[in-house]
Amino acid sequence: MAIRPILEAPDPRLKRISAPVERFDDELKSLVADMFETMYDAPGIGLAAVQIDVPLRVVVVDLQDRGEPLHEPAEGEPEPERVPNPRVFINPELLDPSEELSVYAEGCLSVPEIYADVERPARVRLRWHDLDGARHEEELAGMMATCIQHEMDHLDGILFIDHLSRLKRNMVLKKLEKARKAA
Ligand code: GNR
Ligand code: NI
Predict the structure, then answer these.
(1) How far is the CA of 167 from the centre of ligand 1 (A)?
(2) Which of 4, 43, 113, 149 is the most buried (most CB within 10 A)?
(3) For residues 171 and 113, is the Cβ–Cβ distance under 8 A?
(4) Res. 81: pLDDT tops 80
């Protein structure tokens, strides 16, 4: 297992279209293990393989119980425990996105320290393969729906800042360039 470096915008390698996984072998399992290690280390709630320079349609997500329903802990109640919930989505496909949209202030490990509201379908049906190649289908909502759509955008070379107005995106890109020069 290894933590791998995360590519950052405007790296052109993030714009590649990722290829479908064809072999559900040990190499794939090792890639997914590295993806979890890299995501937990960052830390982040999701990661697409292309972010660690592997342009394959592989996504990992762990919302650690930060999914719906989100509620404030009552007075005197202990902090809710963060329960790890690692999920792997291989060759994911989005089906019937809801007309209802939801807005979330998104961030991205490849766009460090930038947060901006993005509007996306509130619910989606997702079809994917697991590490053994078995097929699954599930209705996703809330943070999981937002996160999986953010990750699937990565598989098609799209960053969340691509959903912003050109003015806002250019402001973000300038800020990233400045931060890079200062580093
Ligand atoms: O860690 C992450 N947080 C996040 C917050 C709101 C919407 C999407 C995300 S995904 C992001 C990790 C990442 O960059 N995945 O590609
Ligand atoms: Ni991202």
Answers:
(1) 22
(2) 149
(3) no
(4) no
Pocket test for ligand 1, best of 109, 110, 115, 156 (most atoms within 8 A of CB): 109
pLDDT recorded at residue 67 = 45
Cβ neighbors of 182 (< 8 A, separation 6 or more) are: none
pTM as predicted: 0.92
pLDDT at 72: 64
**Cα–Cα separations (whole angstroms), residue 174 to 8, 17, 105, 108:** 14, 25, 20, 16
Q: Cβ atoms within 10 A of the Cβ of 125, count?
A: 15
- Grouping H, G, I as helix, E, B as strand and the rest as coil, residue 152 is helix
**151 carries an active-site annotation:** yes
What are the residues facing 135 on neighbouring strands?
Answer: 129
Residue (of 35, 140, 28, 34) closest to 93 by Cα position: 140
Q: Does domain 12-66+83-182 correspond to CATH entry 1.10.260.30?
A: no
Pairing of strands 46-48, 101-108: unpaired
What pLDDT, in 10s, does the model give residues 84-104?
A: 999 999 999 999 999 999 999
124 DSSP 8-state letter:
E
Task: Compute the distance from residue 54 Cα to the ligand 2 centre, in Å.
Answer: 14
